[in-house]
Amino acid sequence: MIRLKKPQDLGAAILFILLGCVCLWFGRDYRYGTLARMGPGFFPITLSWLLIGFGIVIGGLAFSFSEGPKIAQTNWRGLLTVVVAIILFGLLINNAGLLIAAFIVPLVAAFATTEVRRKEALILSALVSIACVVVFVYGLRQPIPVFFGDY
To answer: pTM of the full predicted structure?
Structure first.
């Protein structure tokens, strides 16, 4: 009798297969092309099939001989905090500028855990925001506003 030994692997496999299928569906209108003349859909469609293949392999290994960890309880605080941080970045980047947006994101995301140290979170946020401005605005010359209304 076949028995599920690794429920986490099966969950990951299902997610991989679903994500691969969704990406295939979104890329269905792109021309695939050939290996010599790749179309705009070649890379995303190939990656989607690879993701589905990995999902099938990982799903098959979930029924292997060795026991694996059970599915852990979801950390809703961490998940929601990181999602809120990403949404805040999208809302702030054009209005407040990169410096403020890149400062807020790690600061908010730091509160995903109860073990956050405010001083360390502030220092990390400052360093990340300065690094983002240096790399993206001055290094890569991206047209991103640094401060309020820099456009």
So the answer is: 0.58
